[in-house]
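Obj.: predict assembly geometry.
Materials: sequence records (below).
Method: joint structure prediction, all chains together.
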Amino acid sequence: GDSVTQMEGPVTLSEEAFLTINCTYTATGYPSLFWYVQYPGEGLQLLLKATKADDKGSNKGFEATYRKETTSFHLEKGSVQVSDSAVYFCALTAQGGSEKLVFGKGTKLTVNP
Amino acid sequence: DTGVSQDPRHKITKRGQNVTFRCDPISEHNRLYWYRQTLGQGPEFLTYFQNEAQLEKSRLLSDRFSAERPKGSFSTLEIQRTEQGDSAMYLCASRAEGNEQFFGPGTRLTVL
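Observations (raw structure tokens):
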């Protein structure tokens, strides 16, 4: 079945450091890919998405590119802030059907001042 | 607030009791999803409604679980004869066709 694998956390960075969180997926066809973020004490929020190969999703300084050839959707940010501390989830929806989300296990990011 | 709401936010119950959770989606969203999230894991899909029809159920949804969306608006998730393994965060999400899913704050269930 469809699945998502994220890099294990937790990740601890200093403010202004570069962030990469790796995400690879297994799915048939052309899934849509997402990054969701869960800030402490809050619900899941969509951070960015890409719906076809080579698309780049971006939001709040975060970017991820849909790479069909490597089945990857790595999350990057050039300069993290303390306010980026959260749990990040990579997810996919398969083509057609209910479009239920299949999530990775999540990566906890802590940014220190 | 026009987001997805869930009630209650927290529920503590004893093993063997029945519990019911409610989800109110964003008003124009005809699709509604339930997920379960355990500590240190990503959310796992439980079931999906399009309007009032329950169109997909995960094998995670045992016979003790039942979900309804009687008028295509709010939804309820009932767990009968709760077990300690049911302790988790239960998340509801809704979406309109062509758009992404919006999540509620979740109901945290603790089974003692």
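Conclusions so far: Chain B touches chain A at residues 4, 31, 33, 35, 40-45, 48, 50, 55-56, 91, 93, 95, 100-106 (CB under 8 Å).
To do: check interface contacts against the pulldown list.
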